[in-house]
Amino acid sequence: MPPIQSPPMKPLNRLLEGNSRWSERMRTEHPDFFGKLAVQQAPEYLWIGCSDSRVPANEIVDLLPGEIFVHRNVANIVVHTDFNCLSVLQYAVEVLKVKHIMVVGHYGCGGVRAALQPQNLGLIDNWLRNIRDIAVKHHEELQALDEAARMDRLCELNVIEQVLNVCHTTIVQNAWARGQPLAVHGWAYRLSDGRVNDLGVSFESLEQVREEYQI
Questions:
Q1: For this structure, is 54 an active site residue?
Q2: Does the annotation mark 167 as catalytic?
């Protein structure tokens, strides 16, 4: 029997061609960009955002690759048993020495919407339980809103909760104990106009964390 040959990946040609155009454009507009990028990365920011393809971290804040360290997952959740997220957080804080961590949700988040729907979605239900817990915690506030406003508010409440979770980690608290300058912020991105809404939630010292969560 002749060996089975994989068909050519023609659908990806568009992406490869796009990469070529992007590379040429970057070398024209920023001649030393790739030389610097190849040596090291020295971002001042860690972006913890949603996996949604409509929310690209660098483009939203108009920064080049290498200027933001990024972790993304469904609904921008920070869970204390998620060693993937914690590993990214540790590397960003202890090695890269980022000065700002932004937890960035977005209005119209599919994960938040799914968390509000009483249906069995399979494995991801275990992940979305984190958002459902937030909805239960703020039940009265959310029930007083119409469906659209409820969705938007839960997106914001989720961001705020995850900001607190970041602040409760040993990684961030140890950095503050060392005197390392580090601030944690909560943002929500609006798909309809591309603008970021600063939720006014920022922490930059251990004193701002509730005593029960201090290490």
A1: yes
A2: no
| Dihedral sign of CA atoms 50, 52, 58, 60 in order | negative
pLDDT tens digits, one per residue of 6-41? 665 578 899 899 999 999 998 998 888 888 888 767
Q: What is the 3-state secondary structure (H, E, C) of 5-64?
A: CCCCCHHHHHHHHHHHHHHHHHHHHCCCHHHHHHHCCCCCEEEEEECCCCCCHHHHCCCC
- d(CA 26, CA 61) in angstroms, rounded, equals 18
Distance (Å, rounded) from C-alpha 95 to C-alpha 110?
Answer: 33
| Cα(14)–Cα(139) distance, integer angstroms | 47
> From the candidates 25, 27, 54, 139, which is the catalytic residue?
54
106 is known as an active-site residue? yes
Q: Under DSSP, is residue 215 helix (H, G, I), strand (E, B) or coil?
A: coil
